[in-house]
Every structure is written in structure tokens, then in C-alpha cells.
């Protein structure tokens, strides 16, 4: 399936049904269909052929997201560009992708203007919500004719991995990859009636691809232009939202929001969480305060969203009580994914043994764009390598203990930062944290915790260390606890351990 097929499937269930809503404005399925056909025709008139790369640089916006379906209908490749990236990173991505056209919101015109001269392949520039001296408005660019290309099921998305470890890579996702992700989503989680999905997180990331299974059921996508948790709660109640997604950091903040207790959240069927490890303690609190609707997903850009899943019901045991031991897992491997654990020699390991999480599935990317070396490395020994360290227990639950690059070796022992972070997050005064290893003459590396306290809370480092030691032992206990009012985060809310380490190393 192409991306536009999800739109067309939803339209077949009723073209006048609401498709994309923001504030008081709603676009029906018919509206978005008609727009996408005109958009596809205009791309062709601009010289964009099937297989060409077309980027969108925009915050969450219904018209911007509608452009995605026009790109797909033209047979071109959607390149979602994160507006929170630095200009240089976006320049590198657009150059790497051989981007032929860029559609951007006017608020990002200065960024585009600063990099466009360095992108000679970028032949078409269009401002979605205005115009500039060097780019027409979408209204002026958009023609009246409609058309549609019918390319083979090939690359449909090109997603940047980010440039935190050097030049970014481009993940090639095919229509079959997205179809597999959509099928797993519809198999694994509750969907009753026409869903209403609330998108607060960036549509350039997880929030965007989760729209496709919603549209396949003719559901409505309610889009939030910025991450406002008060407005999030208001939208859930007003629109009777059934499905939504937030990363753990925002869930922690939601639990403390003054309006949460007075908001009717009874319409929720599925509240997805993912993109970073979640504290089991805070997850238990979310199940109690938000409802028995929490639903985990674990994936990565190279295998989008659904490597493993944990439906709301899987958070509970046969007796109906919260299954505490499962809350630190990433759920079970999803129905269309085979998960194994591999050592550094390419040998598969048994139950309970820790190693790299590897997978086989039609969920896995076609490779890295113009990077055969990285593609070969990621698929060594015939499995896709996730870069995560984990294990499978006797009940086939997957536990992620760390990213391979974040493991700390102290005194000859392997310490997994996620395990230490989970122990820290059980301490009542800590809102969030990051654990890193710093060079140490005695231990090789010493475990250091940087913690963000709840507002108005004073953290005693010695007390925190004693608390952690009682739970996971002295080897894994931080040798140092540093208190910061806030932690550096990525564009999707992940704590940036590299930045923490850089600051502490001076």
C-alpha cells in the first residue's frame, strides 16, 4: 500500500467524515482526497517524477500533513524534516536525500533561506502558509487539475536518523514496511468504532505514522500545533479521543498536571507510550490515575514502532491486578516480527541471556540511503541489529536493559544505565533522570546520575544513593548524584546523555 491508500480507504467508509481537525477547522476525507490530487498534479507540473524526494518542514498542521498524501499520490518519496533541528542538520539531510522540492511553513523561511543556496538540487520551494520573495505560496503554486501516478511498491518515506553521532543516515521505508506496521497496530491494540486520535507529538515522528491505521478505519485525527498538556486534556474530553501517544517525559508531566483529575478521560481505549524507556513506578501510577488504557510500543526508525507491543490488558495479571513485573518490559514480540538475542559473535542466545536485540520482519527498512556499508552492518548474520541490549524471559516478554553505546563498565562489571534509571525513578522526589559513565582512575568508569527533582523538592544525594543501593546493589549504585533543574532533551523528549556527559566532562 502507498500512504495515500490509507486516506482512500478511510474515504471509502464515508467521504464526508472528519479526517483532520485542528481547533475549529476540520477537513473531511473528501477534502483531503481532492487536495492530494491537485497537489500530485502540481508536483508533476513542477517536474517532480515518481521516486523523487519531496520534503516537508512544518510544525503539526492539517494542510502540511495533507501534503504527505499528495506526495504519495504523485509517486514521490516523503521526507519528513524536523523543524527543531539545527539549520546545518536539515541542510545535511536535504542534501543527503537529493531533495527536489521543499514545502515549508513561513515561520521556518529564515532557516530555509539560510540553506537553500547550498542545495542546488532543490528546484521547487513552496511556502505552505504564506509567501516569500523567493518562494510562492501554496495557493499560487497549486493548480486546478488532478492526477495520480501508480508507481511500484517501493520506497515511500526517507527518514533521517539525526546527526548526534556524525552525518545523519537516511532510513528507506517502503510501502510494505508501513503496511506491516499498520497491520500490527490493528492486530495488537483495541479499536472499537471509528477511532479519534489526538496527535500532540510531532507528526514528523511517531505521531505521524500512527495516523495511518487510524485512517484505515475512517477515524479522525485531531492535531495539536504545540505540546500544551492543558490543551491536550481539554481535547481528549471535547473530542472524546480514543487513541493517543506521548513519550514518557510528557506522561510524567501529565500525571502532575492540575487539570488531570477533573478531566473526563473515559473515552480513551489506548494511550500509547514509547520512544524512550518508561519508569515502571510512574507507569503504575499512570494506570491508576489515567485508566487501564496504557499501551506500550517499541520500535525504531529502521523498524517503525511495532517490534514489540503491550496492549492495555497485558499490563494486568490473571487476577486483574497490575502485573508489576511486566511494567519494566517492552511487551512481547509483535505478531509479524521474530525477535532474538545475539552475542557479538553472531550466535543466538537462550532465554534470560543478555545480548543485542535482533529481528526479522517485513517491518525492517530497505536499508540506508546511499550507504551500503551501514546497511550491511545493520543486517549482519541475516538479522536486523537494533543496537539495543536486552533479553527474553520465559513468558516471551522482551526486556530492554540499555542501548549498547550507553552500557557502563565499572570495576569490570557491566552496568546498564536503564536499570539504574528505573531504580532512581522509584524515588519519590525525582521527576526524571539520566545515568552516564564518566572516566575514573579506580573503577575505569564510575556511575553518575543527573536527576531532575519535582518542582519544590530538595534532593539529598546521599539519601538517593542509599535508596538505589537497597534496590539494585552497590555495584550499580551511582557514585555521584548531580541535581539539575532540567535535563537536556531531544526533539522528541529523550534525555540527551551525550550532552550531560559533555557538560560534566567540561
TrEMBL record:
PROSITE patterns: AMP_BINDING. It comes from the Bacteria. Residues 17-369 form the AMP-dependent synthetase/ligase domain. InterPro entries: AMP-bd_C, AMP-bd_C_sf, AMP-binding_CS, AMP-dep_synth/lig_dom, ANL_N_sf. It holds the Pfam family AMP-binding_C. SUPFAM superfamilies: Acetyl-CoA synthetase-like. Residues 419-494 form the AMP-binding enzyme C-terminal domain. This is AMP-binding protein.
Amino acid at each position: 500500500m502507498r500512504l495515500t491508500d490509507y486516506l482512500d480507504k478511510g474515504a471509502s467508509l464515508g467521504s464526508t467524515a472528519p479526517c483532520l481537525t485542528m481547533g475549529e477547522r476540520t477537513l473531511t476525507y473528501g477534502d483531503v482526497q481532492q487536495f492530494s490530487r491537485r497537489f500530485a498534479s502540481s508536483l508533476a507540473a513542477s517536474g517532480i517524477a515518481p521516486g523523487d524526494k519531496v520534503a516537508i518542514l512544518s510544525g503539526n498542521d492539517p494542510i502540511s500533513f495533507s501534503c504527505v498524501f499528495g506526495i504519495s499520490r504523485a509517486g514521490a518519496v516523503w521526507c519528513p524534516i524536523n523543524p527543531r533541528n539545527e539549520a546545518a542538520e536539515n541542510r545535511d539531510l536535504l542534501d543527503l536525500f537529493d531533495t527536489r522540492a521543499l514545502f515549508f511553513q513561513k515561520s521556518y523561511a529564515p532557516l530555509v533561506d539560510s540553506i537553500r543556496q547550498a542545495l542546488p538540487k532543490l528546484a521547487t520551494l513552496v511556502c505552505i502558509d504564506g509567501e516569500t520573495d523567493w518562494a510562492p505560496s501554496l495557493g499560487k503554486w497549486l493548480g486546478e487539475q488532478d492526477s495520480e501516478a501508480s508507481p511500484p511498491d517501493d520506497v515511500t518515506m526517507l527518514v533521517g536518523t539525526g546527526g548526534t553521532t556524525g552525518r545523519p543516515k537516511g532510513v528507506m521505508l517502503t510501502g510494505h514496511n508501513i503496511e506491516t506496521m499498520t497491520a500490527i497496530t490493528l492486530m495488537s491494540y483495541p479499536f472499537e468504532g471509528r477511532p479519534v486520535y489526538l496527535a500532540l507529538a510531532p507528526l514528523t515522528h511517531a505521531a505521524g505514522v500512527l495516523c495511518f491505521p487510524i485512517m484505515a478505519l475512517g477515524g479522525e485525527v485531531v492535531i495539536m500545533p504545540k505540546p500544551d498538556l492543558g490543551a491536550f486534556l481539554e481535547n481528549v474530553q471535547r473530542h472524546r479521543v480514543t487513541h493517543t501517544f506521548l513519550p514518557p517525559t510528557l506522561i510524567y508531566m501529565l500525571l502532575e498536571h492540575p487539570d488531570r483529575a477533573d478531566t473526563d478521560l473515559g473515552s480513551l481505549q489506548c494511550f500509547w507510550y514509547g520512544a524512550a524507556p518508561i519508569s515502571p513506578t510512574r507507569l503504575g501510577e499512570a494506570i491508576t490515575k489515567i485508566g487501564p488504557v496504557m499501551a506500550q510500543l517499541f520500535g525504531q526508525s529502521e523498524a517503525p514502532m511495532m517490534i514489540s507491543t503491550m496492549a492495555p490488558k497485558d499490563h494486568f495479571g490473571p487476577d486483574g491486578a497490575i502485573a508489576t513485573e511486566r511494567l519494566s518490559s517492552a511487551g512481547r514480540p509483535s505478531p509479524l516480527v521474530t525477535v532474538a538475542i545475539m552475542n557479538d559473535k553472531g550466535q543466538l542466545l537462550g532465554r534470560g541471556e543478555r545480548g543485542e536485540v535482533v529481528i526479522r520482519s517485513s517491518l525492517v527498512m530497505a536499508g540506508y540511503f546511499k550507504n551500503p556499508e551501514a546497511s550491511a552492518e545493520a543486517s549482519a548474520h541475516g538479522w536486523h541489529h537494533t543496537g539495543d541490549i536486552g533479553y527474553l524471559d520465559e513468558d516471551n516478554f522482551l526486556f530492554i536493559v540499555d542501548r549498547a553505546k550507553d552500557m557502563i563498565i565499572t570495576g569490570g562489571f557491566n552496568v546498564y544505565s536503564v536499570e539504574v534509571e528505573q531504580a532512581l525513578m522509584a524515588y519519590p522526589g525525582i521527576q526524571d533522570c539520566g545515568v552516564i559513565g564518566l572516566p575514573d582512575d579506580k573503577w575505569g568508569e564510575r556511575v553518575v546520575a543527573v536527576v531532575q527533582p519535582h518542582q519544590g523538592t530538595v534532593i539529598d544525594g546521599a539519601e538517593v544513593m542509599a535508596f538505589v543501593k537497597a534496590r539494585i546493589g552497590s555495584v550499580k549504585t551511582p557514585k555521584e548524584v548531580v541535581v539539575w533543574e532540567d535535563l537536556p532533551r531531544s526533539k522528541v523528549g529523550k534525555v540527551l546523555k551525550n550532552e550531560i556527559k559533555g557538560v560534566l566532562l567540561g
